[in-house]
Amino acid sequence: MLLALHGLGSDSSALREYLAGAVPAGVRIFAPDLRAHGADGRLGEPEDFALEAMAADVTSALIQVGDGSPVSIVGVSLGAALATIIARSGTLPLDRVAIVRPAFTHQPLPPNLAVFPLIGRLLGEHSPQRALAHLRASGAWRSIAHESLAHARYLETQVTQPQAAERRIRLTEIPRNALALPLDPRIPAPTVVLASPRDPVHPLHVAQAWADELGTRMLVSPARDDGEDAMMRWFQQQLGNFLTGIR
User: Where are the domains of the chain?
Assistant: First the structure.
């Protein structure tokens, strides 16, 4: 079985692009919407958005639908953090783990994630239209746009998507998490880190730190600003290569 975990402010449909043509025939895919994302309407308290709590939610849901066979995990951004927690927990038998565009660090609210609580605050204070205008005028958005206009435009969807204001707690609370460092940081299964250049929210130095900590290789895609299609084809090819042979 393949567990596919999406990023902050996204939903399970985003994994279709990454996994298109990459998953061997016959492999079951479990791609849940995380709390307050997609079709999951749960909100809750700040503690419900702790990484460990969200990972426990996913693990419980997977156990209900799984058959006890080894699980492979593909996690993107927030999903990468959850994938690591789940893989390190020893709760599930593992096959392999792909860490895609990691963003979280051992520091709460690292600089690369600081824009998300800003968006959450703006959504609480203004209409979506006004919140978007304030976001574009902010130093945080301008700094991201200076490095990558494509990623800055993607961040705008955090304001304009349906129920953005109602679900803003996810943007204010999740980035405040620090990824706990266990005594043994390695994942007990083959692991790869896939990263992108010129990605201010998922910087290469963060991905390299993950690869060093996990003791695994890091592969780097074409930049999103040089063509979204080319970047996604690269991820599909690399994930296809990595997932060959999973059950």
Answer: 2-107+180-243
Which tens digits make up the pLDDT trace of 80-123?
Answer: 999 999 999 999 999 999 999 999 999 999 999 999 999 999 99
Report CA-CA distances (Å) from 92 to 16, 44, 62, 96, 242: 24, 26, 9, 12, 20
Q: Which CATH number, 3.40.50.1820, 1.20.120.450, 3.40.50.300, 1.20.1250.20, labels domain 2-107+180-243?
A: 3.40.50.1820
Mean pLDDT across the stretch 201-219?
Answer: 97
Alpha-carbon radius of gyration of the chain: 17
The bridge status of strand 29-30 relative to strand 191-195 is: unpaired
Q: Which is higher by pLDDT, 182 or 54? A: 54
List, for residues 56-79, the tens digit of each pLDDT value. Answer: 999 999 999 988 899 999 999 999
- The residue count of the chain comes to 247
**Six token digits for residue 85:** 């927690």
Residue closest to 30 by CA, chosen among 63, 78, 55: 63
25-50 pLDDT per residue, tens: 999 999 999 999 999 999 999 999 99
DSSP-derived secondary structure letter, 224 = G
Q: What angle do CA 49, 203, 33 make, to 5 degrees?
A: 35
Task: Give me the sheet containing 71-76, strands edge to edge.
Answer: 29-30, 2-5, 71-76, 94-100, 191-195, 218-220
Tokens coding 65: 């639908």
